[in-house]
């Protein structure tokens, strides 16, 4: 099954779940409780923490974190496990077309501080997407193989929102252009689970 956030980031070949960590978790839980879901591929836009990442590049991910900026500033901690990795991309699932692989950070907030963004990049976390961590957690709960496909829409800086809005249509076109491949990967992922 292919899923997306919705609310403007909709695709004809994907089910919309909701924006942010909470809405997407609730939306996906409802689907998983009502339907038989063999695999999950989340598609969406992502902000880049480093300018070494190119706008409009495609990335694939099976690893997500949920780290808030206050944690990077030593102003908060969490007793929760804030990293999840499915490992599905290491298990014979073909994704060669998407040569770029990344760890995705999720938060209900968009990073606008370039210095803090670079701290994520230096830690090996390249992109941020609001929903992916919650998608991975729900998939883990239901034991569903899951990964994400992301198109870089903007950099995480003071002008992040304006840049996102200017590039969003093209990002959706790029992801839609790859719809057949994404659907085939989803089918292969479901078959892989059955082995």
UniProtKB/TrEMBL annotation:
User: Which Pfam families does its entry note?
Assistant: PNP_UDP_1 (PF01048)
One of this protein's GO BP terms? nucleoside metabolic process
Single GO term (MF): purine-nucleoside phosphorylase activity
Q: Does the keyword Glycosyltransferase apply?
A: yes
Q: Which E.C. number(s) belong to this protein? A: 2.4.2.1
Q: Which UniProt keywords apply?
A: Glycosyltransferase, Transferase
- Nucleoside phosphorylase domain residues are 18-173
Q: Which InterPro entries match?
A: Nucleoside_phosphorylase_d, Nucleoside_phosphorylase_sf
Taxonomically, the superkingdom here is: Bacteria
The entry's protein name is: Purine nucleoside phosphorylase
């Amino acid at each position: 099954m292919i899923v997306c956030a919705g609310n403007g980031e909709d695709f004809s070949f994907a089910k919309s779940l909701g924006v942010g960590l909470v809405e997407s978790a609730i939306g996906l839980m409802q689907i998983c409780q009502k339907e038989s879901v063999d695999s999950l591929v989340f598609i969406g836009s992502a902000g880049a923490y480093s300018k070494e990442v190119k706008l409009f590049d495609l990335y694939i991910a099976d690893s997500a974190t949920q780290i808030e900026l206050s944690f990077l500033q030593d102003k908060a901690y969490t007793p929760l496990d804030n990293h999840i990795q499915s490992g599905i991309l290491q298990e014979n699932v073909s994704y060669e077309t998407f040569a770029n692989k990344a760890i995705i950070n999720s938060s209900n907030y968009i990073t606008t501080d370039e210095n803090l963004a670079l701290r994520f990049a230096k830690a090996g976390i390249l992109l941020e997407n609001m929903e992916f961590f919650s998608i991975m957690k729900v998939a883990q709960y239901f034991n569903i193989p899951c990964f994400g496909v992301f198109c870089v829409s903007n950099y995480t800086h003071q002008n992040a929102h304006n840049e996102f809005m200017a590039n969003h249509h093209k990002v959706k076109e790029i992801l839609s252009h790859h719809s057949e491949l994404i659907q085939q990967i989803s089918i292969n992922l479901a078959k892989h689970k059955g082995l």
